[in-house]
Design goal:
With 508 residues, this protein is an alpha+beta fold. The chain folds into 3 domains: 230 residues, BirA Bifunctional Protein, domain 2; 60 residues, 2-Layer Sandwich (Herpes Virus-1), CATH 3.30.40; 114 residues, Rossmann fold. 31% of the residues lie in helices and 27% in strands. It has a 9-stranded mixed sheet with strand order 3-10-11-19-16-15-14-12-13. β17 and β18 form a beta hairpin. The two termini are 28 Å apart. The chain binds zinc ion (ZN). Zinc ion binds next to loops.
Amino acid sequence: MADILDIAKRRGFFWQSSLIHGGIAGFYDYAHLGTAMKRKWENLWREFFIGLDENFYEIEPSVVMPENVFKASGHLKHFVDPVVKCKKCGTPERADHIMESFLGESFEGLTAEELTKLIKKHNVKCPKCKGSLEKAGVFNMLFPLNVGAGKSVAKAYLTGETAQGVYVNFKLEFDALRRKLPMGIAVIGKAFRNEISPRNAIIRMREFNQAELQIFFDPDTITEHPRFKEIQNYKLLIRPVKNKKSGKVNEILCKDVVSKMKLPKFYVYYMAKAQQFYLDILQIPKKKFRFRELSEEERAFYNKYHFDVEIDLDTLGGFREVAGIHYRTDHDLKGHQEVSGEKMVVNLDGKNILCHVLELSFGVDRNIYALMDISFREEKNRTVLSFPGPVTPIDVGIFPLVNKDRLPEKALEIKNILRGSGLSIFYDDSGSIGRRYRRMDEAGTGLCITIDHQTLKDKTVTVRDRDTMKQIRVKIDKLEKAIKDLIGNDIKFEKAGKPIKPKTSKAS
Ligand SMILES: [Zn+2]
């Protein structure tokens, strides 16, 4: 992990927020490369998931919401973490985290009482000073706010999940749209949780980014999906509850997930789509991906079905959650109806329906971290981030071989041609060509273009592949197409131009 944090700071992916003032735990800033990569990830997500149905849309709700929202959602009561304080040094810690580091298995979802018993039973001590621990209590993670001044001050909170911004808008959107079900409303935005112990850099933060899609549907239609046929023979990678000990991942056809695991088609369809997003769009290796079925104790009480998407991360010692697929039933709309007094029931063809919700929830920051973990490689002479083409922060680096002989002018000319085609480009004319290649390797840039003396003679440039360091010669007028084909993984590198042997193999 230290390697990832080091490269993140050195190259400009992310770092702790307000660092010049000492920083603040649980808050991070995306720097120029991280921001570019996050935007690309979000656009891929947006295009893929909102494109799944013509009745799916994106909205941008406020992150500040009045107290009643969280009364209705149950956050005021249930959005709590078990916390335990050390009697000697006073350090507060998540009780389940202490147990996890002590016994090496997950204790998430256990109540404060259950954890207090376990702490006693195993004689668990403070990880900092070995002092004994108080009884575990609960701590609400919502960030409270006072909005306004004096008499008119109103109690509000920063939202703990983007989903609430969708639920409060359900009825307005349903009426403004075509009054059709299913209706999907997505939000890509910020959420806030006052974590007791934020940790693992951007994996568990107090301010974080979510990409969530809430699909509202008639519960009577859950056993069908009009496009299920398209995925019925697609294999899902699932670690069911019964494989908890072995950790074994089963490959199961979607139609068998329906018949044998007793999951409804509507739910399984979106599991397949989530897996395709990871394997086909983000190009995550199959062996690094799995769905983990959550046991009843691990699930929120309102989630009838709950599978997490997990990616195997070397720096965190195994599979870690990056997304979740939650069947939340009518929990949310019912809660908002009760507290607000507004009717959430809709009438379709004479039938009154209180919609159920299927939520696809993705942690954007965790996904960015996961891509860095999977792509990180250390070789003899260089460090490389081998990002998949669609998420590289920079598409191409452009360099004049030397800073004279009209090569910089020619390089800038080519840069301007390519920029017009929507590619993100980094121009660099400082230092040796080898140093410039190394810098791009650490930024994860897939392709580097070098303009040399031969360019002026025959209108070709050198294109270098990040992962293999192989080089080809490509005609300038064919360059844009070649680059786009290579980024989209549509063509083999050697086929995109004329292969050449690097003159200085060591510095390439
Ligand atoms: Zn202590």
